[in-house]
Amino acid sequence: MAQAAAGLTHGPVAANPASGSQKIRVDKLRPARGFEAKVFGLTEKKGHRGVAAVRSELQVIPAEEQDQYVQGIPQPGGTSGAIWSKPTVGRKTKIVCTIGPSTNTKEMIWQLAEAGMNVARLNMSHGDHASHQKVIDLVKEYNAQSKDNAIAIMLDTKGPEVRSGDLPQPIPLKPGQEFTFTIRRGVGTADCVSVNYDDFVNDVEAGDMLLVDGGMMSFLVKSKTEDSVKCEVVDGGELMSRRHLNVRGKSATLPSITEKDWDDIKFGVDNEIDFYAVSFVKDAAVVHELKNYLKDAGADIHVIVKIESADSIPNLHSIITASDGAMVARGDLGAELPIEEVPLLQEEIIGLCRSMGKAVIVATNMLESMIVHPTPTRAEVSDIAIAVKEGADAIMLSGETAHGKFPLKAVKVMHTVSLRMEATIAPPPTPANLGQAFKNHMSEMFAYHATKVSNNLGTSIVVFTRTGFMAILLSHYRPRGTIFAFTNEKKIQQRLALYQGVCPIHMEFSADAEETFNNALTLLQTQGLAKEGEHVAVVQSGKQPIWRSESTHNIQLRKI
Description:
By secondary structure, the chain is of the alpha/beta class. The protein contains 18 helices and 25 strands. The protein has an eight-stranded parallel β-barrel with strand order 5-6-7-16-17-18-19-20, surrounded by eight helices. Strands 10-9-13-12-11-15 form a six-stranded mixed β-sheet, with helices on one face. A hairpin with a 6-residue loop joins β2 (about 15) and β3 (about 20-25). α3 packs parallel to α13 and α11 crosses α13 (about 405-425). It is elongated. It is found in: Plastid, Chloroplast. Pathway: Carbohydrate degradation; glycolysis; pyruvate from D-glyceraldehyde 3-phosphate: step 5/5. It is an enzyme of class 2 (transferase).
């Protein structure tokens, strides 16, 4: 299990003879010369580092060669650079990895899991059911043979996408040029291209700003006819086939769940996946419709809503209330809304999810440059750090692991940066209204006090669960110690892999509570997750009583 640092090693301490006290030499707090090279394993030449390579030309760097780039990263528990002191807890923030051509083999999925992947994401915008079935089977194979780890499976729906049509060759466009988008099929000339959405003309007005691929190119709408939209190029470039189109400040009037999505959702039900990430959710009705479908199908799958359209923002509260969690999908969100609003919305969505007891994932462009480069930009490192500091349950990699050259390196950077932040920041404050999200259930009070015990005594928390409820509740209180969630359900173990601070462990329960407690504590010790003589807080609470009456709840402090 990955472990995190408990604090910083500040170097030698100088004694003050007069006072008998000690003071830290401030100069020793500064990173040593060559700190960047130690952390990232490489020195970088000055200059622009844009992602210039064409995706089709990318080749995955072999795992053994990727490892050479991370030699020198201060690994948890190591002494590289004497930067960290000895760790005491594991990484709390979870990592979602998108599986694609770079990572869809048994070897890569195994290595991603060992490097720190907690959730495997299937992007249904790419590939077919056969290719995704292969990935699902491999993840399930890993889960079946892994003794102390579990990877959740998330199916991400394509959603209603507006795209340009096919072109015989890329069209170079310069600012000031006129260009037309039409709903007529099969058009692909130097000054006009088809759009796959019949209501496109009705959705746009003169003065709207049309963005290609989230802003890589932009067009100002000048006028429109019955079947075409005439534009002026604002930001030029090469227009290629099947480009994603957004209108700044507007969402397409397409249904959030398309026919293709329903087919993919059924595929997920058949394969008993753990999570759906539903694209372009605009209102709570979509979530209720999906949840009713899953209930009728007898499927126990949680629904994560992707907040990525302008229409979803006024309905944030009701959408998140209806769901099991949210994903801050910053790509399309930053295309439909001014980009300066995205950081504020990210913070707001994380706070709202935490106050409502829902999982929250921060996604898109987190390590985008690592699709083609072996080291991240410093801004990307800060982006990860901010998401961790704001209290996200998970952070996500998209193209970095799906089709990038350095998928393992990207996971290791995300893992290391998360550890570093968690080692030095105080846990985010508990939202004042968190208890309201759980209907003032008695378990909420015990989760609060278990967190206090963990924070004040420095203990981990042990909980036994058949539904995951108590572990999820504890996660939202963000205790300093790890939440060891023992469950006798493999499905619940996989689901809990998404939640911040939770280390899910599968173990058969005995009919005798004391025997189960002892088995659990012995397992922690044998797997190196706890040491002899260490104290843990054992919590017995939740919606479904185990070895207790429904009216009895307790917290025990036990010595291993």
